[in-house]
Amino acid sequence: MHDHNHSHHHHAPTGGTLNRAFVLGIGLNLVFVVIEVAAGLRFDSLALLSDAGHNLSDVGTLALSLLAFKLAALAANKSYSYGYRKSTVLASLFNALLLVVVSGAIGWEAWHRLSHPSSVPGLGVAAVAFAGLLINSTSAWLFHRDQEHDLNARGAYLHLLADAAVSLGVVLTGVGIYYSGWVWLDPAISFVILAVILWGTWGLLRDSLRLSLDGVPLGISLQEIEQKALAIEGVAGIHHLHVWAMSTTQNALTAHMVLRDDYATPEHSSAIKHKFRHILEHLNVHHATLETECVSAGCGAVEC
Fold first, then answer.
1. What does pTM read for this prediction?
2. How many other CB atoms sit within 10 Å of the CB of residue 30?
3. What is the pLDDT of residues 99-121, one digit of tens each?
4. What's the DSSP call for residue 184?
5. All domains of the chain, ordered by start, with CATH?
6. Alpha-carbon gap, residue 170 to 164, rounded angstroms
């Protein structure tokens, strides 16, 4: 007896306000990335170019979250029976790989400039970075109201606050260069920014690669799911248990549940599956395909 459950408890925007927050956050950061790259090239400042790469990661993260919201609303079709949710995982993997390449370029250039530092206008660097501090702080404020009840909004909020702190560091670096003349501070702060990028990128790369290979999503334990299933009255065992990510926010499960012979009736089977689905919802699995079978071969009550 097969059961296909398509729950509708997926992550979705909490309203037009959150949707506008993502759009404004993407717009503000994208404009600033262009300004920061232009200023970095003009002032020959690796700190500004590094921070621009970091802010570009913000744009990718915010766009990915917005994409997840949009794709969740698209219906499945004959060619894509699960819809287009998996593209959020692929986008996340691409974003992580791009950041690895950017990080390598920043590290190489920073190492070279430590040996051959170039003259950098400290106040110019500080002024541009201060603008970044304002933009990142404003972008974070856009998500403040929704971050308490939406995980995507909270992730964006914390990410933008961290970026505001990095921009503050670049401001202080620019001021330090102006007053001390220590131009080596420019490539030195780039290593700090590089460390921040790699810290966030490693988790993104690990998780996105895991999900793209249909690995068990982080935070979900097959052992715990099995224990929860066996704790249901009438369940003698569970096998062919598989859990994978349909998107960055939605997980799916398939399993065969073995019922005791005295529970091998359509009524008991339906009740057990209903109870198990309810348990799975609390374990962040909202799409479950279940099959029941009985302990004794040929019992006939449910599929064996």
1. 0.68
2. 16
3. 788 778 778 877 877 777 777 88
4. T
5. 12-212 (1.20.1510.10), 222-294 (3.30.70.1350)
6. 10
